[in-house]
Amino acid sequence: MPNLLKISQQTLWQVLGKVVTSLSTFIILGLVARNYGEEGTGIFTLALTYLAIFYLLGDFGFNAHVLRRVKSLELRVKAEWQKLLGTRIIWSVVLIFVAVGLLPFWPFATAPFSQAVLFGSLAIMASAIFVTCNLIFQSKLRYDLSVLASSFGTIFGLGIFAYLIFLQLPIPLLLLAHLLSWLMIALVALFLIYKLAKTALPIYDIPYTKHLFKASWPIATTLALNVVYFRADAFILAYFKSGSEVGIYNLAFSVFQTALVLPTFIMNAYYPLMLKSLRGIKLVGLGLLGLSSAGTILTFIFSPTIIQILTGGGFSGSTISLQILSLGFPAYFLSALIMWILVTRGQYQQMLLVYGLGLVINLSLNFIYIPKYSFYAASWITVISEYLILFLQAFILIRNK
Known about the structure:
The protein is built from 13 helices and no strands. By secondary structure, it is mainly α. The longest helix has 58 residues, at 2-59. Helix 1 packs across helix 10, helix 9 (243-274) packs across helix 13 (348-399) and helix 12 (329-344) crosses helix 13 (348-399). It has one domain (2-399).
């Protein structure tokens, strides 16, 4: 029961933070949709999707690995944090060069898209710093501080976005507001880390960095495969279809994705406790199933209203796409739990196999059906792929019980 209370408290803080960031995101999406139309929305959301892949790659599974390996959280996590910060800064610089350097080779990379990515690319480092700060917040179960940093930066960024949109600046320049938002989040997080741990400076320890990459690569590769299969459809859609159809699909996906942070928040709070004991795991699973089922029903009913409020009209395809995507909530919620059970058990290779197979099937289906059925196919394939992942995870879990 005490564990459940801790999970609930930390999840509540993250949910409150997500309310702030989600409202901000919806306001920005609404402003972009109303002022730049489906085409502009497609460019804007595709650039953010591209950058988000590198934000997740910046994680590289380091936090999960350190928390799992370190037993005395209070002392040793703090001792390693500065080295981890140095590692993440180096890694994020590499990712920035990769993100920008690959742009000429992507068939979907139009000039506005490439410019938008270029303007927003430094946010990769800011995101990496914030993720590193979350190691301390998570180990101390102080997600209130993480939420404070993200909320402050998000509200700051919203003001910049609104001002740039008011000036009717081109879509690529809107990514400057996105960059400034992430920089503010990182700076506030570092300030809070200094207050909490009395240190905020990186240490560049190359042997430590090499060891961390060597130890974390299975988790990182699994996360990378997960990210690619999760959002590859947007880029395949951009290649085969118009920017307008990308805008329609990404608008629906942005709403859908907002709800997917809930199982992430729950597992963020539960993971440090899971490392000590799996007591209460059935209750957590039932809670995730109940929340996801309710989410499917509510989203299916209110999708037309949500899209209408966001866009002010048009984007009718987004309503259908969102309704289809909502059918995948139970799979996403439960697979988040099983994935971290497998991480706790150190079953990295099995996870890698699951997501590798999921990626192959997802890409194959998208290449076959998107050219004919557009974002409708992308929506259904997203749902089908996640249920496949859930089935494979459950099979491994039961087999190795």
